[in-house]
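Obj: model holo form, ligand = manganese (II) ion.
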Amino acid sequence: MKEKKSFSIKFSLEDGYSPDRTPTRRMLSDMKGMYADTKAFESILEKEDPCVYEFYELGIPEKSSDLAFGTTIINPGKVGNEYFMTKGHFHKKLETAEVYYCIKGHGYLLMEHFKGKAEIQEMTPGISVYVPPKFAHRSINISKSEPFIMFFVFRADAGHDYKTIETKGFRKIIVEKNGNPEIINNPKRGE
Ligand code: MN
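Output (holo C-alpha cells):
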C-alpha cells in the first residue's frame, strides 16, 4: 500500500476560510422543508437565495484509518424566527463520533440520539464539543450579526445520512423569542 504524505492547510482564525480550497456552499434553496415556517422560507426565496452555510470537503480517502476535517461557517440569519443552521445528519456508520471546536461566533450544537434523546451544547470561541456515536448533529448560529465558525474532525469513512433528518427533522428547534434563543419542540414532529 502506498504510504500517505503529511500535509498542512490553513483555515483562517478570522473568517474560517482556507485560501487554498473552495468550500461547498449550502444555499437556502438547498434546505427545502427543513425550517418550521414554510411561508417565511418561501417569501425569502422570492427575493433572494442567501448562502446559509459553507464547509470544506478535503477529499480525504473514506477509510476507517483516515480522518476528515475542515471548517464550517454558518452565516447569521433567520427563517421566520428560526436561526440559520446546517442541514444536520447522522453518520451512515452510526458508531462513529465527531469533534467540533468553535473558532468564532456563538452557536449551539444540537444532537439527537437515533432512539430519540436530544442534547444541546452552547458554543463560543475555544469551546470544543464531543458528539458521541449514534447522535445526529446540527449546528445553529444564534448570533444576530456574526458568522458561527467551527473546526471539525470525524472518521473519514463515517458517511453522511441527511435523509432521516430531511424527512423527520430534529425533535427540537431553536427559535428567537423576545430577542433570545429558545429551544422548543419541533412543531412538525407533533409531540
Ligand atoms: Mn458529522
